Amino acid sequence: MSTITITDVSKIYSGGVRAVSDISLDIADGEFIVLVGPSGCGKSTLLRMVAGLEEISEGTVSIGGRVVNTLDPADRDIAMVFQNYALYPHMSVRDNLAYGLRNRKTPKAEIAARVAEAARMLELEPYLDRKPRALSGGQRQRVAMGRAIVRKPAAFLFDEPLSNLDARLRVSMRGEIRQLQRRVGTTSLYVTHDQLEAMTLADRLVVLNGGRVEQIGRPLEVYNRPASTFVAGFIGSPAMNLVQARADDGALHLGEERILAELPHRGPVTLGLRAEDLRIVPANAPGAVRFSLTYVEELGAQRLVHGQCNGQPIVAAHPSEQPLPAEAALLADAARLHFFDTQSGRRI
Questions:
Q1: What is the 3-state secondary structure (H, E, C) of the chain?
Q2: Which residue among 61, 71, 148, 290 has its CA within the 20 to 30 Å range from the CA of 167?
């Protein structure tokens, strides 16, 4: 069983700086886990501790039921895929794929079979005799993945492997990585700052902020029920609208505007609204909140309309084929409102 268990793991640098604080995570055999968060949130540090490239200050990491805290990276039965590919420029694709196996004194016939299998799986057969400099960025990334696959490790660790690719190639490579992982079935831990990449790849997301876990869950669970204003503002494009409101007498108040909503909370509250859960309607529509348009982003099938409600910025999605009213207001789907405690930022 190629499970990974992270228990109360912390990374403390000199001076008492905590890059990672008390993180616990159980990764099932064959599961694809994505660590996501902004720069400096601790995701790469956590990955490097699992890999053995960073010393663990506190807690334990187990791979396949074996505590690996004191083991060298080569002894942890993992394979890493880096953003810079880490290929040997003087070697052919074939030799890059075979290099790790030769170091382990794997029999030649087995090396040839594994290299051929990985090349077929990744459609690298026409390039086996080329050097990395003769390959495109996407082809180099496939070689890096192939080098990990041939080892048949207990786990794959991906450190922002697509960040050096252009936007179009990133989309296609996302699909290739996900299909490949499902086909091979290897437990995978993947780091990215790109929330769209995280949403499309993960079985489960681990959202990190300031070295701590904000939320763990399936992508749609995290999107539909963010645990905090941080998660709400980070996951989703555009980010969830977060506006300050007041709950009183069974209603929400945005300044002078009143919205009927059942809420046991009284006093200040942060209201979360996804752009797709808002409808732009004429200003005289019943129950609508006045909306002052600022500018429009045309995205093809839909447009993102930026504006303000009671002086607070809000973005709403609107079909491109529908004209915008001269004087606009917003209607929100009452079933899709999100409420957060104003002080803690946690979901109510």
A1: CCCEEEEEEEEEECCCEEEEEEEEEEECCCCEEEEECCCCCCHHHHHHHHHCCCCCCEEEEEECCEECCCCCHHHCCEEEEECCCCCCCCCCHHHHHHHHHHHCCCCHHHHHHHHHHHHHHCCCHHHCCCCHHHCCHHHHHHHHHHHHHHCCCCEEEEECCCCCCCHHHHHHHHHHHHHHHHHHCCEEEEEECCHHHHHHHCCEEEEEECCEEEEEECHHHHHHCCCEHHHHHHCCCCCCEEEEEEEECCEEEECCEEEECCCCCCEEEEEEECHHHEEEEECCCCCCEEEEEEEEEECCCEEEEEEEECCEEEEEEEECCCCCCCCEEEEECHHHCEEECCCCCEEC
A2: 148
